[in-house]
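User: For my dataset I need records formatted as: sequence, then structure tokens, nothing else. Please produce one.
Assistant:
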Amino acid sequence: FSGSTFGIENLSALNISATLNYWNSPSGPGPVGTGSGSNITNNVDYCPWLNDIPVAFGGTGSGGVSLVKNATTNIFYCTIQSALDASLVGEEVHFISGTASETLHVDNGKKLVILADAKLNVSTSLTINPGGNVMVNNDAELYTLPNSLFRNNGQINVMPSAIFINRGTYKGRG
């Protein structure tokens, strides 16, 4: 992609599959993507991606990465909710870095950990069911967007970080 304006420029309304590519950065493509690598446009499916140059070009070709990972199984996912849905009771889903906007449901016995420097925007609602757990670690942020709903019947652990509710609603115990 060196010397190009875009890694992939999609001028159509149809999606282009560009998964398992290396984008000149382990963090993936930008600015439409979540990383700082080669630029992509809208309607490009890029997740998961390779986090190193392919073997044919002298790299390791390590791949199948994204910013969301089941820390127990080491499987990467393209969305936080898809990782939570696939996780079993007791497994931890880690939101590693970057910014994500999702509607989330954290079910009984499942755990979402927002790691340092990650920012999670709750776009519509975040529901933490009894026995569910969200941890917000060092300098990470969990915040709701205007008019969103944050329902908490589970547990939230805040460890030198922040929860922001921007004109949204918080309903919870404690």
